């Protein structure tokens, strides 16, 4: 016998589970049956596509055997099985990349943490909620040796050789006090029907069935085996035969979530391509949503045969939160990831699926606005990623995304912003570059407030990158208020051009600031502040340059901003009347530095800034 220790993350997770952070301990049976179903899916696929396994006898089934007297439950399958190396890898460690992120979010609040665990899905380890000892005997398909894995869920696990007549896995649970309620045949049938009724393989329950013996006038127990699930591919059935409960149960089984989904979209396409799709939107965003190694949530089937569940080619990355199933009649059973990347059939299914998902979301936004806002609270940001990567659906995405605004509380759509445009307004305006509080107080918004023009507040970290490539909404221009060209929209022809009067000061400031600025000019966008900085249309803003450098792009050229000053501000008027001296030079630098600070850009030399500020303060006190 070989004694092993759990990986650190497993030990942490097991402690949480054993202390009943799950609010529904019955979930253990769903998880173990789901594991058995996955094992059967994998072996069925191999028997159809791999010559090594084609001659293998394959009788797919899942067997539950209850021993009420000894309070044990056995879950056995005839699937792919595991060898010693697999048992260590799958039951002694957690390979999933999101584990550390998941553990870091645990707060110690049992109710909140139980929801996190539900989203994360701990699979096999949920057995330790109801058992004080778990024994696994497994034999890998194509191999002769079987292995036994045993653990109490505390210190570690033991592995030793064992015997099993056929390939597959048997899990035996020795129920603890919490789990004794499941040493009951009626309770087990109830849980199976609730969570696993749709599993495509038959689930049999062997138990002692009580029957009335009329001759003896007493109840007798008979060892009985019965199938306890429907064993049909639910997604292939007509929609009018399915209930809301059917859809929700399937979702919980394939996703590992225990909350009901927000929405689902079930489509059967017939014609040049035959396929069925069933997509779900989870109520809460997956924990690994923003990780590079996110886990996909869409399973691929061909003619009801499971093919894979980790192919990122099935949907674009900005829809990675979608869970569900694609079942095609036209793909080959031995399709590989390499083939998927170039397969025309899958490309067509993917294109149609994306349009279907976005179209359904658009209908929900129009007809169920309150439900749609719940969706937006979780998934507004990934939809924005689609603006950058999915040009074909950009207009639809612009309609789906919601925005903060200077005009309304909460969130608004571009369609609503367009409907509120002022007479003569030429463009839709937005501001990016930092936190919402910083953006709302930016000097760049002053003229828009004065003219009662609406500006969108884009404070997501990706907004600066994404919206720099979005120039129009329909026929209306989308313009960033920190771009130099936007001032052309704001020019009031009735007002005199003050640039000529201000020219001596503009030249003086440019001479003082030198190469730090591209140009110094009179501003038409300022009302209360003395200065601001803007960038040329084709150039990244100062904030964008800062972000790119933080991301490791060191070869970005040092682009110079344009400094704009307010001709009507008292500071500017006084500077215009002052002779050239040290105070005027200090004031020039302070106008530039404060404009940088308002943009959220750190000053290159804070000490020098403080020295100049102190000299000006000394004169004013």
From TrEMBL:
Location relative to the cell: Cytoplasm
Name of the protein described by the UniProt record: Chaperone protein HtpG
One GO CC term on file: cytoplasm
Subunit: Homodimer.
Keyword annotations: ATP-binding, Chaperone, Cytoplasm, Nucleotide-binding, Stress response
Gene transcribed to yield this protein: htpG
Segments forming domain Histidine kinase/HSP90-like ATPase: 24-179
Region entry C, spans: 547-621
Species, as recorded: Granulicella mallensis
Region described as A: spans on this chain: 1-337
UniProt xrefs under SUPFAM superfamilies: ATPase domain of HSP90 chaperone/DNA topoisomerase II/histidine kinase, HSP90 C-terminal domain, Ribosomal protein S5 domain 2-like
GO molecular function, one term: ATP-dependent protein folding chaperone
Coiled-coil region: none
Role, per record: Molecular chaperone. Has ATPase activity.
Residues annotated to bind ATP: 31, 35, 77, 82, 97-98, 119-124, 169, 337
